[in-house]
Design goal:
Length: about 140
């Protein structure tokens, strides 16, 4: 089952380093920080994206081959960023309009993989920039970002 072990999966490894996007400090203990995304911004993005798609359709009216004109390409709305914050920078962790994750529940790569699998089930997830958060996390943990 596991090539280097007889009965159990590999140990998850050391705790990940998470850094606050506001102050830049690494967060310790991890329970003193969280990652969040603002649901109101997701809703605004969804509306802006629907309007942008309508403009693309309008620009392609009567064409057999659909293209995105350059001005519309530059004008495409940006999916919503996840932010990492320490409680010193924002004592009101999360809040009613945010989806938030306490970082002590995302302490290892397997934890982050589990969160990713969980979030992939949310219809709004593709309207966020989780990939950028993963790249930040890779960078904070010594990988190329
Ligand atoms: Zn901070």
């Amino acid at each position: 089952m596991y090539p280097d072990s007889t009965t159990s999966p590999p140990a998850p490894g050391p705790s990940l380093v998470w850094c606050c996007h506001s102050c830049g400090n690494s967060i310790s203990p991890l329970s003193a920080g969280y990652s969040q995304v603002d649901r109101r911004k997701i809703h605004a993005y969804e509306k802006a994206f629907a309007e942008w798609e309508r403009r693309v359709d309008e620009a392609n009216a009567g064409r057999r081959l659909q293209v995105i004109p350059g001005d519309l390409l530059l004008d495409a709305p940006m999916p919503v960023a996840w932010t990492v914050t320490c409680k010193a920078c924002d004592p009101a962790a999360g809040g009613g309009n945010h989806y938030w994750i306490s970082l002590d529940r995302a302490a290892t790569w397997p934890d982050v993989a589990e969160w990713t699998a969980h979030l992939l089930g949310k219809t709004w997830f593709v309207h966020t920039r989780w990939s950028q958060l993963l790249r930040d996390l890779i960078g904070w943990n010594g990988g190329a970002a």
